[in-house]
Design brief:
- The complex is a heterodimer of chains A (about 375) and B (about 600).
- By secondary structure, chain A is of the alpha/beta class.
- Chain A contains 13 helices and 8 strands.
- Chain A has an 8-stranded mixed beta sheet.
- Chain A is globular.
- The termini of chain A are far apart.
- Chain B folds into 3 domains: about 260 residues, TIM Barrel (Alpha-Beta Barrel), CATH 3.20.20; about 160 residues, Uracil-DNA glycosylase-like (Rossmann fold), CATH 3.40.50; about 160 residues, Archaeosine Trna-guanine Transglycosylase, Chain: A, domain 4 (Roll), CATH 2.30.130.
- Helices cover about 30% and strands about 25% of the residues of chain B.
- Chain B is globular.
- The chains are: A alpha/beta (about 375), B alpha/beta (about 600).
- Chains A and B meet through α2, α7, α9 and α13 of A and α1 and α4 of B.
Chain lengths: ~375, ~600
């Protein structure tokens, strides 16, 4: 099984240094306005700027006719384990990432950065569909928002949904909340069984603002979630351990977010931070100022939050067991990862029973100590001398 | 709440409430129970304890909102690479410091954010520590979270850090490191356990026993450090501890480069100075002796012949056997008072004989092998060249047995004290002095005393000795203004002028041999009044005992701990005494003795 997000990290990244202006955003969207009014503090401006400046873009251009990637993976519909087909289309790129972007997200590395014509996009889709093998679920991802008409035109949104509606039981697309509106969803809902995946990451506005630079607040998510919940189904992505949070706060933050998002979501996907190219977290990580979450933490969040929600809870840690992904000491990683995978498919908490390794003590120490020192305890402990 | 009780350079020992500082905050959490020997705790949850406890309130993302006297305010722990986001996070007692420039001065404890990340870059760490102390003043507590090990506590205390925590001890224990004052040993490599602490007496090597050993080791080193501060030997301890790890040697060297910062905290007088390493040569009090020479010193006018002499183990030099032999040769020349004896020495470079009592000239102890290393030769040559260039000597006689300067007559045939060398010295000197008029002992006594006074008080010292007589038996000699002295009366406060002044001889000060400095009398104080130097300005009250810091309004920034100072209020002399604090502390502090009073009006 190919790991979804891992393959979304492109082997080469792309340069766009001389871009002087950023993409015009959907005029109807409220989020940029919101950002400038409520989050316009000096520090946040600098944070946005720093994230933007860390992106380096390759001079090479992608071929607008080539999709990013596609593969098949396991997923669950109505408690039944099925195959899912994943297609990553190459679009202009996430509207927010083109302006500033999230501190952990490197998906903009895959983007065309300029408009992709309907013909080219459809060509990508058709090429990928050649590998379609009657999977029960199809996930159409764009490294941005499928519902953003600047990435995927309304015509294309409908065309793709219409085609897939006839071929599969469920279609999953991703979108930022500001691109969600009732009319659009109702229209698409008629064409296929739709699930909208929204990355909330954290239900704490301060985390969204000062740690992730998400560009929207909890209330924006809640607005979209209400709409999606009533029309189709909602999948929510939750981030584990965004930067500047201690391991313990990361766990607390994720559990707290599950509690809130669980009210609206049929599926919750826990995403431990992984180090993607040209991102702010990569910048910290290279300086030994950030450690990706422990797999113990992932297990802890799943265990604690399963009791808080009826939503299907899943986690497939990108780069799990590697230095760039959630990892433990190296000896026990495989064991824990397979328990996590098992849980994601079966929702059976007993898979976490009797998991132990010496490094668990170190992790437990760190949960208690990390807050005391004013920096993060990373791989190479900064303890003096 | 915080009171500094002993000062030793930039390091200090004091009391915060009833807790001795410097000290370690021992973390208390679910997994780590309270260490019973701990004097002060660090907790992240509400808890009841008899001991003083500092509470950590978490981050701005998830503040805990703990209610207590000492809560570390919630912060966003930006790492060093995000310095553009730095802020300070404060409540009315404690500040988490990220942006030193924007700090408020009126808090009690300053938590140096990123300390553990900073120490990886010795130069930067030292720079931050100096910046922080300069910004917040001397009387504030500095807490460096996450740093410190038994072998580095001494250095960090020397930098002015007052509080540490047990996090590094716990992490090292988890990694199975057995800590000692010499560094760390992997538990598996410890063939014999050298420790007799309660944890080690149990003869078990599980995590908790190792942790407790490390706790005991750390706490006992802190006690050791406090004692060393009380005894004025912190620098000596630091130089010995830094040997255990190159990175901390670098830190000390970087710190010594901040001479302008460190010097002002160093007392002008200590009992003892041990020169044991290369770093000793850059001690602020060594460098200060050399700089004071360059800033304040000129050789006595009557001295025409420079005689370079080797140093002696016994101090003061002139009391040693070898120097008595040299003195004899000088006296035999027939006109000894035109001969200027200057001692060549490491680490000070040169010591003109009239300054031999000043700290550290009579206090330092250095290993002597009879050989100089390149750095010492270079340093000494520099000092001699400076002396010769800035003073008018007609001749240079080198009796050190080492060719330091190209110019000069070498009178040392083999050893400086051999019959032959001494004879050659005497003959050479006798031949040279014939050409000069005889200079009286009294004249040279005044010139020498003037040099001492200027070395101690700067130019303000000139008037102290002007037109006076020097009486008494060296090294305890008095400066007496005689009854012919009308000019000096102009400095005297009119009201307190005794009617029979003309008939009395007045002692203005005394060179005290052990102290190596001039101790002022009230009369001497009156003379310094006119110069507005070495003054401590107090509120308008009559002195009863010592001067407390709370009563000090202003103080001359040239004052160092141990200096003789005059106590004034609006041009009225209130007394004379010895500074017990550096001037910043006198002005800022509200506790403690600022000046130990010798005489009061």
């Amino acid at each position: 099984m190919k790991n979804q997000s891992e393959s979304r990290i492109p082997p080469i990244f792309h340069e766009m240094k001389n871009r002087s202006e950023f993409h015009d955003v959907d005029a109807n969207s409220s989020h940029f306005l919101f950002h400038s009014q409520n989050m316009g503090s000096y520090a946040i401006k600098k944070f946005e700027e720093k994230i933007r400046n860390l992106r380096e873009y390759s001079k090479e251009k992608y071929n607008p006719k080539s999709y990013v990637s596609c593969w098949s993976e396991k997923d669950v519909i109505d408690n039944e384990i099925v195959d899912a087909f994943v297609i990553i289309l190459r679009t202009k790129g996430c509207a927010w990432a083109l302006k500033s972007g999230c501190s952990m997200c490197g998906y903009i590395n895959d983007a065309m950065l300029e408009n992709v014509s309907d013909e080219d996009l459809f060509f990508q889709f058709s090429e990928a569909m050649k590998k379609f093998n009657d999977q029960k679920i199809v996930k159409i991802f764009t490294s941005g928002s499928f519902l953003d008409k600047n990435e995927v035109s309304e015509v294309m949104q409908e065309k793709i949904c219409e085609i897939l509606g006839k071929k599969t039981r469920k279609v999953i697309v991703e979108s930022r909340p500001e691109f969600v509106n009732k009319e659009k969803l109702k229209k698409l809902k008629k064409l296929c069984a739709l699930e909208i995946a929204v990355g909330l990451e954290s239900a704490n506005d301060r985390v969204l603002e000062y740690s992730i630079n998400k560009g929207f607040a909890l209330k924006d998510y809640l607005r979209a979630a209400e709409i999606i919940k009533d029309i189709c189904s909602l999948k929510t992505y939750i981030l584990l351990k965004p930067p500047f949070l201690t391991e313990k706060e990361g766990i607390k933050d994720a559990i707290n977010t599950v509690k809130i998002a669980g009210e609206y979501s049929s599926t919750i996907s826990l995403n431990p931070v992984n180090i993607q190219k040209n991102t702010f977290v990569e910048f910290l990580w290279k300086r030994n100022e950030y450690r990706t979450p422990w797999l113990w933490s992932v297990a802890e969040v799943l265990k604690k939050s399963k009791k808080l929600t009826d939503a299907h809870l899943m986690c497939s840690p990108t780069g799990g067991g590697t230095r760039r992904g959630a990892h433990n000491c190296g000896k026990c990683d495989k064991k824990i990862l397979s328990a996590i995978q098992n849980f994601s498919l079966t929702q059976n908490l007993s898979v976490f029973d009797n998991l132990y390794c010496e490094c668990k003590e170190e992790w437990l120490d760190m949960l208690e100590l990390e807050g005391f020192v004013t920096e993060f305890l990373t791989e190479k402990p900064k303890v003096f001398p | 709440m915080f009171e500094i009780l002993s000062r030793d350079g930039t390091g200090r020992a004091g009391k915060w409430g009833n807790v001795n500082t410097p000290n370690i905050l021992f973390a208390v959490s679910e997994r780590f129970k309270e260490f019973e020997e701990a004097e002060i705790l660090l907790s992240n949850h509400e808890m009841k304890t008899e001991k003083m406890c500092v509470f950590d309130d978490g981050s701005r993302f998830y503040p805990r909102n703990l209610k207590n006297d000492f809560v570390i305010p919630p912060d966003i722990p930006y790492p060093l690479s995000c310095s553009e986001f730095f802020e300070n996070y404060e409540n009315d007692k404690i500040v988490v410091v990220q942006d030193i420039e924007k700090l408020d001065k009126n808090r009690e404890v300053y938590v140096l954010s990123n300390a553990a990340e900073l120490v990886k870059n010795p130069k930067e760490f030292v720079k931050k520590v100096v910046e922080l102390r300069n910004k917040i003043g001397y009387n504030k507590i500095v807490y460096a979270p996450g740093v410190g090990m038994p072998n580095s506590y001494a250095l960090l205390v020397y930098f002015g850090v007052d509080l540490f925590d047990s996090v590094s001890l716990i992490m090292n224990s988890r990694k199975k490191y057995f800590l000692t004052n010499d560094g760390k040993t992997f538990l598996g490599d410890l063939v014999e356990n050298p420790c007799r602490c309660p944890a080690c007496l149990d003869k078990k090597s599980d995590f908790m026993h190792l942790l407790h050993h490390n706790y005991y080791t750390a706490l006992s080193e802190l006690k050791n450090i406090r004692n060393m501060i009380r005894n004025g030997l912190l620098r000596e301890l630091v130089e010995s501890r830094v040997r255990t790890e190159p990175v901390i040697v670098s830190m000390l060297r970087h710190f010594d480069k901040h001479y302008d910062f460190t010097e002002k905290y160093f007392p002008v007088r200590k009992e003892k100075m041990i020169i044991s390493s290369k770093e000793s040569l850059f001690r602020p009090d060594v460098i200060r002796f050399q700089s004071r020479l360059k800033e304040r010193y000129k050789s006595p006018e009557s001295k025409k012949i420079l005689l370079l002499l080797p140093c002696s183990a016994k101090k003061p030099y002139s009391f040693s056997k070898s120097h008595q032999l040299f003195r004899k040769a000088v006296l035999s020349s027939g006109n000894p008072n035109i001969i200027h004896e200057v001692v060549i020495t490491s680490p000070l470079g040169i010591v003109p004989i009239e300054l031999e009592l000043f700290y550290p000239a009579q206090n330092y102890d250095i290993s002597v092998t009879g050989e100089w290393d390149d750095f010492e030769v270079k340093m000494i040559n520099g000092m001699i060249n400076w002396l010769v260039k800035n003073n008018k000597y007609d001749e240079i006689i080198n009796h050190t047995g080492y060719s330091f300067v190209d110019a000069g007559v070498n009178t040392c045939t083999d050893k400086p004290v051999s019959q032959e060398s001494l004879k050659k010295l005497e003959e050479t000197l006798s031949g040279l002095v014939k050409n000069y008029e005889h200079v009286k002992r009294e004249k040279i006594a005044v010139e020498s005393m003037t040099n001492r006074a200027v070395f101690q008080f700067g130019d303000a010292g000139i008037d102290l000795v002007k037109d006076s007589m020097i009486k008494g038996r060296y090294p305890d000699i008095r400066i007496i203004k005689n009854d012919k002295l009308n000019s000096a009366t102009s400095y005297f406060n009119v009201e307190s002028k005794p009617k029979n002044l003309r008939l009395r001889s007045l002692q203005v000060g005394m060179l005290v041999g052990d102290r190596g400095m001039i101790s002022l009398t009230l009369e001497g104080g009156k003379i310094l009044m006119g110069k507005r130097k070495y003054f401590v300005e107090i509120d308008d009250f009559k002195l009863k005992g010592d001067v407390f810091a709370v009563g000090v309004n202003d103080a001359d920034h040239d004052i160092r701990i141990g200096d003789d100072v005059i106590i004034t209020h609006k041009n009225v002399l209130k007394g004379v005494g010895v500074a017990m604090m550096n001037p910043d502390e006198m002005i800022e502090s509200k506790r403690g003795v600022a000046v130990k009073v010798r005489h009061k009006t």
